[in-house]
Design goal:
The complex is a heterodimer of chains A (148) and B (200). Chain A contains 2 helices and 8 strands. Chain A is α+β, with helices and mostly antiparallel strands and 148 residues long. In chain B, α2 crosses α3. Chain B is elongated and about 85 Å long. The termini of chain B are far apart. The chains are: A alpha+beta (148), B alpha/beta (200).
Chain lengths: 148, 200
C-alpha cells in the first residue's frame, strides 16, 4: 500500500523527469570577433504569433549578391525556449516593381530547432530582377489544428 | 413519438456529417498535403528540387565560369536518370521543376537528347528541320557545355509499427568536354510514422 506522501513524492519525481526529458538545450561556441563581414539588412517585422516569436526569434538578416546578380538572403533565428520545436519558413521574392516573383525557392521548408539553438536559414532568388524579399515563419501545430 | 423519430434523425444526420471529411481543393503551396511513409510525396519532390536548384545556383557554373563561348547561358543536356528505389518514380517529378526554374530565369539552356523524351525529340526534330531549311542544309548538332545526371536511392526501415523511409537525391553537373564534375548536390529526405497524416 503506497502512502499518500510517498505517492506525492513519486508524482513530483515523475513530473521532474518528464520536464527534464522535454527540456534539452544547445550550448554554442564561436570566434569572439567574427572575421566575416555581413551585409546586414534593416528589417521591418509583423509579429502576429507571440509564441512563435520566442520559438524562432529573428536575430539578424543579411544579404549577398552573387556574381550572376541573384539575391541571396540569410536569416539567423534562435529558439529561445528550452525544448525542440519545428518551424516552417519560406522566402518570397519581389521584383523591381514590387511584384511577387513565383519561384521554386519560395516553397515552404521545415526545420527543427533545439532549445536555445541558433540556426541560419537562407535562400537564393533565381530571377536576376529580384531586389526585395519577405520571410514568413510559422510554427508547426498539432495535426488537425493546421488551417493554412 | 414523432418527436423521438425526428430527434433520432437529427442526431444520426449530425453524426454522419461529423464523421466524414468533405473533399476540398488545396492551394498548391499548402502545408496540408498528406504525408506518406510508403512513397515519394509531391512535397518531397518540391523540397528536393528546391534545395538542389539553390545549391546549383550558388555554384561557379552559374556565376561566370559556366558561360558558353558565345556568352550565352550554359547549354545543359539532361543525360541520365537512375532510379534505385523499390518504386517507379517519374524523373520529371523533380527534374522538370529544376528545368523550369533554370530555363525561365534565363540561367541555362536545357535540352534532352533525342530518344530520351518523346515530346522533346519531336520538338528537336522540328527545330532541326527548320534550321536545315533556312541555313545551309547541314544538320545542326547541339554540343552541350554540361551534362546533368540524376539518381534517386531509397532506404526503408521498420521498428514495430513505425516505418521510416529515406530518399537520397543525387545530382551531378559534368563538363561535357573534360568529364570533370563541375557541381554535385545531394538532398536527403527522411519520413517516419505509423500511418499517413495530413500536414508536414
Amino acid at each position: 500500500m503506497i502512502k499518500p506522501t510517498h505517492f506525492a513524492q513519486l508524482l513530483t519525481m515523475a513530473a521532474l523527469l518528464t520536464a527534464s526529458v522535454g527540456c534539452q538545450t544547445v550550448n554554442t561556441a564561436q570566434r569572439a570577433e567574427p572575421q566575416s563581414q555581413r551585409d546586414y539588412i534593416d528589417d521591418q517585422r509583423i509579429v502576429t504569433d507571440g509564441s512563435l516569436n520566442k520559438v524562432a526569434r529573428i536575430i539578424s538578416l543579411n544579404e549577398h549578391r552573387l556574381e550572376n546578380g541573384r539575391l541571396r538572403v540569410q536569416a539567423q533565428i534562435q529558439n529561445q525556449k528550452k525544448s525542440k520545436r519545428t518551424v516552417h519558413y519560406r522566402f518570397e521574392w519581389l521584383d523591381t516593381n514590387g511584384m511577387v516573383r513565383k519561384s521554386l525557392t519560395s516553397s515552404w521548408k521545415a526545420i527543427n530547432i533545439q532549445g536555445g539553438q541558433m540556426q541560419s536559414i537562407s535562400a537564393t532568388a533565381t530571377h536576376a530582377d529580384v531586389i526585395d524579399f519577405r520571410l514568413e515563419l510559422i510554427e508547426r501545430k498539432p495535426t488537425g489544428l493546421l488551417e493554412y | 413519438m414523432h418527436k423521438t423519430i425526428l430527434t433520432t434523425a437529427v442526431i444520426a444526420t449530425l453524426l454522419t456529417t461529423a464523421c466524414t471529411t468533405p473533399a476540398k481543393r488545396l492551394d498548391t503551396n499548402t502545408r496540408q498535403r498528406i504525408v506518406t511513409t510508403s512513397g515519394l510525396d509531391v512535397d518531397d519532390a518540391i523540397r528536393a528540387a528546391d534545395v538542389l536548384t539553390e545549391s546549383m545556383l550558388n555554384s561557379r557554373v552559374f556565376n561566370g565560369a559556366g558561360e558558353s563561348i558565345d556568352g550565352k547561358p550554359p547549354l545543359i543536356e539532361v543525360s541520365t536518370f537512375i532510379n534505385n528505389t523499390e518504386t517507379q518514380i517519374d524523373p520529371d517529378s523533380v527534374l522538370k521543376k529544376i528545368r523550369i526554374e533554370l530555363t525561365n530565369s534565363g540561367l541555362a539552356r536545357v535540352f534532352t537528347p533525342r530518344g530520351h523524351d518523346a515530346i522533346a525529340a519531336e520538338q528537336s526534330a522540328r527545330d532541326q528541320f527548320r534550321n536545315d531549311a533556312s541555313n545551309t542544309g547541314r544538320p545542326t548538332v547541339l554540343r552541350p557545355d554540361y551534362t546533368l545526371s540524376f539518381k534517386i536511392i531509397d532506404d526503408r526501415a521498420k521498428a514495430g509499427r513505425i516505418h521510416e523511409l529515406t530518399y537520397t537525391f543525387q545530382m551531378s553537373l559534368t563538363e561535357a568536354n573534360t568529364r570533370i564534375a563541375a557541381w554535385e548536390g545531394e538532398e536527403i529526405i527522411s519520413k517516419q510514422g505509423s500511418k499517413s497524416t495530413v500536414g508536414w
